[in-house]
Amino acid sequence: MIEKITQSATSVTLAVFISRILGLVREQVLAYFFGASQSMDAFVVGYRIPNLLRDLFAEGALAGAFVKVFSFNLEKRGLKDSFQIAQVLISNFLIILLGIVILGILLAPYLVSLIAPEFKGNPYKFQLTVYLTQLMMPFLLFISLASILAGMLNSLKIFFLPALSSGFFNLSSILIGVIGYYLLVHLSLEPIYAIALGVTLGGFWQFIFQYPVAKKQGFSFKFCPNFRDSHFVEVLKLIFPVILGFSLVQINIFINTFFATSCGEGAVSWYSYAFRVMYVPLGLFGIGISQALLPELSKQIARKDLNLAKKTFSSALIVSLSVSLPSAIGLYLLSHPIISFLFERGKFTSLDTFQTSQILQILSLGLPFYGLSKTAIPLFYSLGLTIIPPLGSMLGVVTNVATIILTIEKMGIKAVALGTTLSLLLQSLFLVLMSFIKLRVTEFKFLIQSGFTLLVAGFFLILVIKLFQNFFIIKNLGLLAVILIAGLCFIWICKILGPKECYLFYEKFLRLFKL
């Protein structure tokens, strides 16, 4: 069963890989044209507000609850009835999301005042942030609908195309950003508006791309809202505890933004660039595994096959660690050459490289724990224990706030990164422990053997990188060479020591390229 899930995850990962590469290109465009300027700070905060809601709806409570209900009914009632249920759910949430978008546009000045009060000291920067927020608010509507369609298609075992759709978001941002930059500069207007418009239109194209795929499966949207529908009520029951959990996550992000804006000009941008680089492996592996895992666990638990669910979950934890652990090591040891290679050109200076790489080092330490959390959360959705993730999030918020308050005076913006990493650590340990208790996991011999293999492979990964750093200047092609050689060494050690879950993801991924 884990091979089936891993195959789906690698399919998602290939598509997300394409999207993340385009995402890095988008960040390179931003770095080249805007560096760590006040326009970039304004864009980061302006994008943060609809993105907070996007994390809550598109990739959080709404998506998880929809997949749970749709997958369960698909297993019990068949495709036709499930599509009818989806029509009602989409219609209802279309109305709700439109209302939220309108409110967000009207309340933008107050939201910016709340999340970035330091910007009030610079009236131009504050007003620019407000306008950017209003321009990007419709992104929430489009990306939420795109997420619902992706959840539906994932339940039908279609993973590649929904994951690939996010590439349209990044591609739109790049094309509109570059063309719009020169056009707006020629018109003597603020060019950052072009990037904001690209965000909104990118969300629209991500939704439009998936609809023909869903239609090919037999789904045809019909506007038929019914707020009394029993399945809608069920989704709401699932959503509200999860909204609490994800609200706590958003509070964490709000806190980070609040403190980051007080660390001087450029700090918000440095943190954003570092987080975006970390988001490549974070998004690749965490999203791929969790998207493939949730529908499968939901079906296994619907069939009351708990023994299979235990094995599936235990194996998924190791597959997650097998990709997040080497990513964390690589980002930590190679942070400076990675940031320099990606961004140091145009208005992005060597000082920006130094500051961003310092933040990336701290954030990279949280990668394995984020991967574990992303693997554990679908289990609680499947079991209907939606109150547990909020408790983990609450622990994360307390840890984050305490860490920042205690360290920000000495560490500045790096304190925000440290708070993020420590909150991920404690949150993941809590979620994994609770998942073991609730599912009564007993595969401890397998988990210990796998953990030992990953530690040994990680040691050799560090050794290879350190040898390269001692004898070579790691830059450009040299950076790509050390990543490739060190990665292959990690996979080779995993394959020698086993079990297969430690290298299964890579094996499936390479097969996609016929290697």
Can you put this structure into words, describing what you see?
With 515 residues, this protein is mainly alpha-helical. It has a domain at 38-250. It has 21 helices and no strands. The chain is globular and about 60 Å long.
Describe this protein with a few key phrases.
84% helix; 515 residues
Give the topology.
Elements: H1 2-34, H2 38-57, H3 61-77, H4 79-106, H5 108-115, H6 123-136, H7 138-155, H8 160-164, H9 166-186, H10 192-216, H11 230-260, H12 267-302, H13 306-333, H14 335-343, H15 350-364, H16 367-383, H17 388-411, H18 413-439, H19 444-471, H20 477-497, H21 504-512
Number of helices: 21
Largest sheet: none
Strand content: under 5%
Structural class: mainly alpha
Provide the low-confidence segments as ranges: none
Q: Shape from CA axes?
A: globular
Distance from first to last alpha carbon: 23 Å
Work out the number of β strands. Answer: 0
What fraction, in percent, of the residue positions are helical? Answer: over 70%
CA-based gyration radius: 22 Å
Report the average pLDDT across residues.
82
One letter per element, helices H and strands E, the order comes to HHHHHHHHHHHHHHHHHHHHH
Give a nutshell description of this structure.
By secondary structure, the chain is mainly α.
